């Protein structure tokens, strides 16, 4: 089975590149979004953030 899995989440570094933010500003932003779960969802596993792709893309597309 060589099926490629469709990516469902972004890493923090991928979101950092997409948004063009510095590392500190990104983690401040992700921490705030994680606490509020708004304007998109953020998952946290210890110190690792994962951002569900579809809700993030929907949010971002509102501003493009």
Description:
The chain has 64 residues and is of the alpha+beta class. It has a single domain (9-61), classed as Arc Repressor Mutant, subunit A. 48% of the residues lie in helices and 17% in strands. The chain has a 3-stranded antiparallel β-sheet with strand order 1-3-2. A hairpin with a 2-residue loop joins strand 2 (43-45) and strand 3 (48-52). Helix 1 (12-19) packs across helix 2 (23-36). The longest helix is centred in the middle third of the chain and has 14 residues, at 23-36. The protein is globular. The N and C termini lie far apart (37 Å). 8% of the residues are buried. The mean pLDDT is 93.
Q: Reading side by side through the largest sheet, how are the strands ordered?
A: 1-3-2
The assigned CATH architecture is Orthogonal Bundle
**Gyration radius over CA:** 12 Å
- Count of DSSP-assigned helices: 3
User: What coarse outline follows from CA principal-axis ratios?
Assistant: globular
Mean pLDDT: 93
Along the chain, the helix and strand elements come as: EHHEEH
């Amino acid at each position: 089975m060589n099926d490629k899995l469709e990516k469902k989440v972004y890493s923090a570094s991928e979101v950092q590149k997409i948004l063009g933010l510095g590392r500190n500003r990104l983690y401040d932003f992700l921490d705030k979004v994680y606490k509020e779960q708004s304007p998109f969802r953020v998952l946290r596993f210890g110190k690792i953030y994962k951002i569900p792709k579809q809700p993030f893309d929907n949010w971002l597309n509102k501003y493009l």
